[in-house]
Amino acid sequence: MAETDGRAGRPAPRKRADARRNEQTLLDAAARVFVASGVEAPVRDIAAEAGVGMGTIYRHFPTRADLIIAVYRHQVEACAEAGPALLASGLAPHAALTRWTDLFVDFLVTKHGLAGVMRSGNPGFEGLHEYFLDRLLPVCAQLLEAAEAAGEIRTDISAYELMRGAGNLCVGIEDDPDFDARRMVGLLTAGLLRPLTG
């Protein structure tokens, strides 16, 4: 029998936290499967990756659109939260920026097939791109500003330009298994460094 907190039989906060953790586990598993097989991957593959039954996934996400939107938002939030954490970790600002762009590339790779799905007319997909920009542009700007203030990088690139450049380097990677988007984006961020003098 489920524990309650005494308020009209509501589940205890621990149970709510457990449910949130279970949902995060499902989203992480779905993201991995999307990277490997695209957003049209069978739900049974996601269930197997998460170690749960298909019914568990449908209880959390009744439709594929619900699952895709949740994975997208989960990945955006993880990427947004990573920026300040990397800056606070003691890494040099340019190193923090480079680590963050690796995470950003991972997020972009997770979006395989998402563009087509977003054109499906499902109202749930409206506003996702704006949400993505609203959450991630300020984080990228914060990382760039820290690296600029430390004198590590040039000052003539904007967060939008860096994110757009990284995004362009990830276009079409599903059609070319020999193309390493993370390496190319790494070269892009390395190119931001100021040349050594003296």
From TrEMBL:
Pfam families: TetR_C_43, TetR_N. It comes from the Bacteria. Keywords: DNA-binding, Transcription, Transcription regulation. Residues 20-79 form the HTH tetR-type domain. The keyword Transcription regulation applies. This is Helix-turn-helix transcriptional regulator. Residues 42-61 bind DNA. Residues 1-21 are annotated as: Disordered. One of its GO terms (molecular function) is DNA-binding transcription factor activity.
